[in-house]
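Person: Show me a sequence?

Helper:
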Amino acid sequence: MALELLFNVILFLFSGFCFWYVGATMPKSADSELGAEQWPQTLLFLLMLAIAFNIYKFFKTHKKEEITAAFVGFFPGVLHFLKSKLFMGMVLLVLLALLYEPLGFLLTSLFFLIGYGILLGERRPRMLIIAAVVITMILYIGFSVFLGVLLPRGYVPFLRNAALFLESIFQWI
């Protein structure tokens, strides 16, 4: 319940910022026409009205005591969430996204799969490494060879050379 209210307030404030930003950065159109800046502002204004109505409805349907109780238990719940495996999996995905281009597909996938295996409870290092290598190769062959997707090779020279070497091997398939 507290999360719903916080999300609505944050979304309302972000929509207000976007409304201001569009008005400040887009060139002004003629007064007699709807220009490029007015369409997004109109949609953002309607969105802000809908969010304001949702916040109003939230306070109409919930009693003050319920809202207070929800906020009392909110912060311990957030701390519990930050310690959960779900959050750690989300952090791993963010790291994957950040390291994907600089390190390339091969090394990033290996690290991600090993980290996620540890997160899921696998403690045998040999099994983690074998599974990560096999899954990475299956993904690499599937996307690069069969689907023709250019996967990032990385900026580090030896990683880039390894990716180019694998591509030269799989060109024969």
Remarks:
- The mean pLDDT is 86.
- Residues 145 and 171 are 7 Å apart (CA to CA).
- The two ends are 55 Å apart (CA to CA).
- The chain has two domains: 2-81, 84-170.
